[in-house]
Each structure stands twice: as C-alpha cells, then as structure tokens.
Amino acid sequence: MIIAERKPLKEILEMISGVEKLLILGCRGCVAVCSAGGDKEVAILASALRLGRKKAGKPIEIHEDTYIRQCDPEYLEPLKEEGKKYDAVLSMACGVGVNFIAECCPGVRVMPALNTSFYGANLSSGEWAEMCAGCGACILHLTGGLCPVARCAKHLSNGPCGGSVGGRCEVDPSVPCIWQKIYERLTSLKQDQLLRKIMPMRDWRPAGHGGPRHRIREDLLP
Amino acid sequence: MDSNLQTGKIVAFCCNYTATVAPETLREAGLIPANLEFRKLPCTGRIEVPALLDAFEGGAEAVFVAGCHENECHNLSGSRRAGKRVKYTKEILEELDIDPSRVEMFFVNRAETEPIIEAVREMTRRISKLGRLHAI
Ligand code: SF4
Ligand code: SF4
Hints:
Number of helices of chain A: 9
Largest sheet of chain B: 4 strands, parallel
Distance between the termini of chain A: 27 Å
Shape of chain A: elongated
Number of domains of chain B: 1
Strand order of the largest sheet of chain B: 2-1-3-4
CATH class of chain B: Alpha Beta
Helix content of chain B: 25-40%
Strand content of chain B: 15-25%
CATH topology of the largest domain in chain A: Rossmann fold
CATH superfamily of chain B: Lumazine/riboflavin synthase
Number of strands of chain B: 4
Order of helices and strands of chain A: EHEHHEHHEHEEEHHH
Strand order of the largest sheet of chain A: 3-2-4-5
Number of helices of chain B: 4
CATH architecture of the largest domain in chain A: 3-Layer(aba) Sandwich
Radius of gyration of chain B: 14 Å
Number of domains of chain A: 2
Structural class of chain A: alpha/beta
Largest sheet of chain A: 4 strands, parallel
Strand content of chain A: 15-25%
Bound molecules: iron/sulfur cluster
CATH superfamily of the largest domain in chain A: Response regulator
Oligomer: heterodimer
Order of helices and strands of chain B: EHEHEHEH
C-alpha cells in the first residue's frame, strides 16, 4: 500500500495561515491503513490545529470529513460544491488524492497534510518498509521475489556492489543488503543459476523517466 | 491544598476503578481544588488523543490521565494504551511549542484516593512553575 506520514504541525500551520474556515478531509484507503490519514488522524489533526491556532490568538473553524477514497472521481463528486464553502481543503490522502481534488474540483483550494513516502509493507504495528518502487517492468521472478530496484540503495540490477558488511547495506547498515538476501534466497530455492545471468541495462521509461505514466484499458472504458 | 483559581484549570481523566470516591466528596473534604475538572471513563483505554488536546483547547492548563497499574488494569491493556496516547499527545504539544509536561499519565493503585490527590498536587506544581498557557 501507499505509505505516508503527517507533515510537521508547524509546516501545516504555516500553510493554513490566513485560512479561517478549513475542511480536513481524510481518506479510508491506504492512508487509513497506515494510520496517517483516516478518521482517527483527521480528528487528531483537527484538535491539534485548533489548539495551535488558539494559542496563536487566531482561532480557526475546522470541519472534519473522511471519504472512502480520494483517487476515484465518484467519491469526489460531493466535494465539487462542498469544497467551495471553505477557505481551503486540507487533504489527508496521499499525493494522488490531492492532485485529483485539484483536477476535479475547480474553485476549491486544496493543500496536502501528508508527505507521501513509498509503497510499503506493514512489518509490525507502527512499522512499514519500502518493498516496490513501481518501476513498471517487474523483475521479481529473477530475484527470488525480492526487489533490488526499491530495496538496494544503488538500485543495482546485477548486485551486490561489494560493499556490504555482515549482510548489511554499506549505505545504511540498519537495513539488510538486499542482494545478499537475494543470493541466500535463490540458493535455498536451488535457483542460483539465475545469479549467473547478467541482466541487461534497464529501460527506465516504464518507471516514469519517459514522463508521467498513464494506462488505458479499452475494454473497461465507458 | 492551594485551591485558588490563579493556577488555572486542570482536567483529570480517570476510570471507574481508579476513582471510586466521588470527586464532590473529595472536594468537600478539601482534598482536591476547585479548579480540577474530573472526567470519568469506563476505562482509560477509551481515552483518545483529541479528547486530551481538546481539554487544552477548552482552557486547561494541565491534563492528566489516571489509570490502573499496567499489570492490574481491569480491562487488561486499557491503561497501557492510555499511556501511549498520552505519550503521543506530548509529542503533539511539543510540536506546538507547549511544554509536554502539561500532560501526564499516572499509573495508580485501584480504589485508592491518595495517588489521585498526589497527581493533582504534582500537576499543580508543574503549572505553577510553567506559568499560564491561556490568557486569564
Ligand atoms: S522490480 Fe519494479 S515492479 Fe517489481 S517490485 Fe521492484 S520496483 Fe516493483
Ligand atoms: S550493500 Fe547491498 S543493498 Fe547496499 S548498495 Fe550494496 S548491493 Fe545494494
């Protein structure tokens, strides 16, 4: 899922300076699951901002709402009119939600409450780690299911780099060297012959280096 | 105990098990000050961060939660959860440049009044030292 985290309160307070009537809009998708922008986080942020503004002697009127998703047009429909009742909408969705509100709701001023970080897995309650970088040309069948694009600090296709120590990455020893893990996993699966194949230079266009990505499925179009 | 309103409002969240004596009785006995607002919950595990923040927004100078000792909680992990929420509230206060010691979690013996009174005294000491958060 998409992992995000709340921006520092001071940054948000700066962003909304001058705003007197604000809608904080959460999303029940990924950001609710990673406890960054669901109903609970909307309530906490609203209370924190009210307190912060009261302390600054500039009380603010804040309304709270949470949509099922902010990345599908049907859910944003009510916001087209509702959003105009506020000086601004502070979205607690990922960046996709904020962009989509800006696209779908003309006349509504939208701002991000979160920093959208990565595609990650939930390691344990309160801990997430990046596992995929959305490169658009998946090679996990060659690497034992472990992603070197997202999880190798140097994004090597033919690792390891030679710098790992004790199975830890030389760039950040707090994370494992993913190429060491790929080696161990392929060996245990008796697929280590895959390591002898040299992966060709990658075409990074599907990863977004050729401009914004867009996908169409003719069979699903209205 | 100093019960004058100069020190400002203190809001206490207690559960049914930590606060068995009615606050009015304690107040009449002069054991807790007039500026203490008592809010009873079925279990402190029910406390949410917005309720703690809203107490400050509503004029509290200090807020505390009194729950059972972690291994004695009637609802097993209620007070432990409350402790985590108080900790997160401290982080938010810090972000807002409000002294985090204005909010505290106290783990107290069940059905004893003295630890609650001591918690009130402690918070009163803290806010007297820190000065006013809200204009009088
Ligand atoms: S190879 Fe690309 S698509 Fe596959 S997991 Fe890694 S980043 Fe994601
Ligand atoms: S130590 Fe391993 S994970 Fe780190 S950069 Fe080198 S190959 Fe990549």
